[in-house]
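The instructor's notes for this session suggest beginning with a concrete chain rather than abstract definitions. Hand out the sequence below and ask the class to guess, before any prediction is shown, which regions might be ordered.
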Amino acid sequence: MKTKTAMALAAAAWAALPAQATVQVVDFDRLVASTVLDKPFGAGDRLVLDSFAAGQRGRLEQTITFTVDSPLQIDGRANWSVLPRGSRLYRVDIDLLGADGELVLSDSFAGRAAGLANSVLAGALGPGTYTLRATGWGGRDASLDLSVAFAVPEPASAAMMAAGLGLLTLLAARRRRQR
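After discussion, reveal the predicted structure:
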């Protein structure tokens, strides 16, 4: 009896553990490349782009299409080489597009250090399909590294969003009554 109880408690504890976070790594070896990821992202998951285009020059356009099943906060960090005589990328722009192609988020340049340029991509996402797009120009051995973390929105942010949606609903109802 004690063994069965212990096994049942162990099984219940194991089932209560959060799902294992995953890291999905995308390796591109060309300046122009794209992929679609099948597994949806959840809280704690990460997306990593590791791009190195040896000996290539020209337009950079790399896209990764993915899905999110629940509201999540994203926090992305990118860096790319800007050494004037070596590998480099320039005019790099990283955007997150919605399923209709509309711009959802765009990166903010965070500065340069040790031959690397850095930018940040952060914001809130609702459930849906998104495309992460990096554009720019590459010159000889271009490298781009991007890491995006997905997290559950903070309760205060979720409460503020719910309050805002409630206010919009009230305003719409008031306008209908006035007509």
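Then share the key points. Helices lie at 2-16, 155-178. Confidence is low (pLDDT under 50) at residues 1-18.
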